[in-house]
Amino acid sequence: MPACPSCAHDNRPGSLLCEECGTALLSRAAFAGGTKKVDVSNVDPWSGNGSPWVEPHEPLFLHIQGATKPIVLQPSHSSFILGRSREGQRLQPDVDFTPYQGYAKGVSSVHATLRREGGYVTLEDMGSANGTYINGEPLVPGQQFTLRDGDEVRFGGLVTYVHFG
After folding, report:
1. Is residue 14 part of a domain?
2. pLDDT digits (tens, 9 = 90+) for 125-140
3. Measuring CA to CA, which residue among 124, 139, 147 is closest to residue 51?
4. Domain-located, residue 11
5. How far from 17 is each of 3, 7, 21, 50, 144, CA to CA, in Å?
6. pTM to 2 decimal places
7. Of all helices (H) and strands (E), which one includes residue 133?
8. What is the CATH number of the domain that holds 141?
């Protein structure tokens, strides 16, 4: 298990970030050397060829499969850590999937990062144990992917759909 250089927490093998404090455990170059690259640049959205553009003033919506209300991500924030909370964990996610059976569905504590940059939204897997998938295609940890309106995003086994505005 890789020990964190900051807090000495023993992390799971393959972790990019410390599960306790969020410190980077490996450089991206070192991690990418042992990772199979998957080309996701030509993946079509699951339905309707949604636009990759989102207006800067519009919120984002994460519709979790089986939930009655979406999670609303306000445009006042440009970056969100997605994952699940654990007791005693120093780095808490901005979007907590614990109430949606996050643990049982394999969501990591620090699973992914969603960013708003200009008029686009990107998603990056942060070395999660059970992977992140866009429209069924796995993301390479540490590689940003531009989302489109209507994309299916799976965090481990937790299925969500992202919608713009």
Report:
1. no
2. 999 999 999 999 999 9
3. 147
4. no
5. 11, 12, 8, 32, 16
6. 0.72
7. strand 132-134
8. 2.60.200.20
